[in-house]
Amino acid sequence: MKEQNGYHIAVVGATGAVGKQMIQTLINENFPIRKLTLLSSARSAGKKVDVDGQEYIITEAKPESFEGVDIALFSAGGNVSKELGPEAVKRGAIVVDNTSAFRMDPNTPLVVPEVNEAELHQHNGIIANPNCSTIQMVVALEPIRQRFGLKKVIVSTYQAVSGAGAAAVEELMEQTQSILNGQAYDPKILPVKSDKNHYQIAFNAIPQIDMFQDNGYTFEEMKMINETKKIMDSPELQISATCVRLPVAVGHSESVYFEIESGDISANDIKALLKDAPGIVLQDDPENQLYPMPANCVGKNEVFVGRIRKDLDEDLGFHMWVVSDNLLKGAAWNSVQIAESLVKLGLVK
Ligand code: NAP
Ligand code: 12T
Fold it and tell me: Do residues 276 and 170 both lie within one domain?
């Protein structure tokens, strides 16, 4: 990366699973960077990292870290965003926040550029990046909603451990090895590090992502429900979710049932629509066993859709399978895409 005219970018949580992908995505997308500031907690401060052949030193994130920063990409947990996000804004930066801290704040745009890029004009310094599972689902549903209307959605997810951070990926790897070697293991991270109990993830499926809420849904399920309504500006949408963790390192999969408002249409009509929709790759050819799988989506920015079928009983109902790299479109790429949109729309000073 050359010093050039461009923007001063800060990455908060630069040593994490998402932060590392943010740095890589900025480089891959050739984002115009004049200066790059890499921030973490005191634990990683002083650590050296290589970015495109240049050495950078990680520093501890503090209010003063944002002096002169144009765009700050936050991915260090909700508490860090709540504390330092406003400090960055105070110093003139635009914050793109990957945590759930501001997503449901009515004054904060919640943006997936393929769906609601224009919301960026309403920002007050902070723009929220939606939950990973929500992002890939709304990219696939929005073209359908626009053409046929959307009445109801029922989604079940099959989520990768990298969504829960670098330590969760390490736990899956080490636990798998221990089990194969016949050794004892002691789950410490999944399903949720701060919750009471921890369970085996290797060779298992855990129907808990994030903490349980009083209504019996997990917070991840409620994020999918509430964020989808906000992004699609559809408060009346009927939607429910079940979120499940699988022993997959990267790539979330989703089985999505949806009912359109009206239209005498076939599965082929949905396929034709999604084939040309922004950010989507259609992989749907049962005869040749073509369908999306996480292992084939790792490292790709797009949302992959397949297995599109009409429901056998409900005339307005359809099923589809949606897969994407949760660290890219689900997090780093969507954030960098928001930064690109901000530049394109002239919203960065
Ligand atoms: P991770 O691998 O555990 O990394 C956490 C990062 O945050 C590390 O860089 C860590 O730095 C930094 N950090 C922790 N406490 C900090 C503090 N007090 N001040 C400054 N930096 C601090 O986690 P991850 O998977 O990258 O996720 C990070 C956050 O992103 C999550 O908490 C979540 O809110 C959000 N996230 C969003 C999505 C989404 O759906 N869009 C997906 C995944 C994650 P050290 O190296 O110093 O510990
Ligand atoms: N706990 O919406 O554990 O910030 O996979 C995303 C993913 C929080 C979030 C996970 C999480 C978020 C997870």
Answer: yes
Minimal-distance CA residue to ligand 2 atom 5: 163
- Pocket-testing residue among 41, 59, 135, 161, ligand 1, by greatest number of atoms within 8 A of Cβ: 41
Q: Count Cβ atoms within 10 A of the Cβ of residue 340 and give its class: 0-12 exposed, 13-18 middle, 19 or more buried.
A: middle
Q: Are 235 and 318 members of one domain? A: yes
> What pLDDT does residue 279 have?
98
Q: Whole domain around residue 62: which residue ranges? A: 2-129+331-344
Q: What is the CATH number of the domain that holds 83?
A: 3.40.50.720
Tell me the three state secondary structure of residue 117.
helix
What pTM value is reported for the model?
0.97
Mean pLDDT of 119-148: 98
DSSP state at residue 218: B
- Separation of CA 147 and ligand 2 centre (Å): 31
Average pLDDT over residues 48-75: 98
Number of domains in the chain: 2
Does 235 fall in a domain? yes
Contact 89, 95 (CB under 8 A): yes
Q: What is the CATH number of the domain that holds 296?
A: 3.30.360.10
Q: What is the pLDDT of residues 236-264, one digit of tens each?
A: 999 999 999 999 999 999 999 999 999 99
Q: Residues lining ligand 2, CB < 6 A?
A: 99-100, 131-132, 159, 163-164, 209-210, 223
Residues 197 and 317 grouped into a single domain: yes
Top mutation candidate among 136, 159, 209 for ligand 2, by most atoms within 8 Å of CB: 209
Q: Give a yes or no: residue 154 inside a domain.
A: yes
pLDDT at 1 over 80: no
Number of Cβ within 10 Å of residue 344's Cβ equals: 12
**How many angstroms separate the CA atoms of 140 and 282, rounded?**
10
Q: What is the DSSP letter of 130?
A: P
Query: Of the listed 132, 198, 243, 297, which one is catalytic?
Result: 132
Q: What is the pLDDT of residues 7-38, one digit of tens each?
A: 999 999 999 999 999 999 999 999 999 999 99
